[in-house]
Amino acid sequence: MNADEKTGFSGTISQFVSFLLGDEEYGVDISLVHEIIRFPEITHVPQMPEFIDGVINLRGRVIPVMNLRKKFGFQEVERDNKQRIIVVEIEQKVTGVIVDGVSEVLDIESGRIDEAPAMGTRVNTDFIKGMAKLNDERLMILLNIEKILTSEEIVKLAAATSKEASAGETGVEATA
Predict the structure, then answer these.
(1) Residue 44 is part of a domain; what is its CATH number?
(2) Is this structure's pTM higher than 0.90?
(3) For a 10 Å CB count at each end of the chain, is N or C smaller?
């Protein structure tokens, strides 16, 4: 199996939205990105996984917001004006992903993308789609955003956002 078959990239060029978490650069397939927004007010929801900061109202639609720093086990930082929420689709569910900053949209040739390195059996790297070699020294971790959450986490998110949406429509606060 060649690298194109393992990473799922075929054709000559793919586009990725690049973003930062700390000093590391990540990329997500642009076709999964709905939009990139500044921080609105986040409503905290009880009994969510630790890495879910809450939900936001995006033009009348309640969507969960995942803190990628928390999900990856990175140290938290204070909010600043560079941080953004990338609105993506995960398992046919629109979700916000908090990142430290959005850099640019990159066109990357499939020949510059290698499969994710093996990290042993104890480390789950299913959410890493590949490693893009941008130049001799610069690497970008390409995320398979649809595999960031476990099935259990997706169910919890769906339940919480449907409760929040129902509460918003009736004016009654949702309980968990």
Answers:
(1) 2.40.50.180
(2) no
(3) N
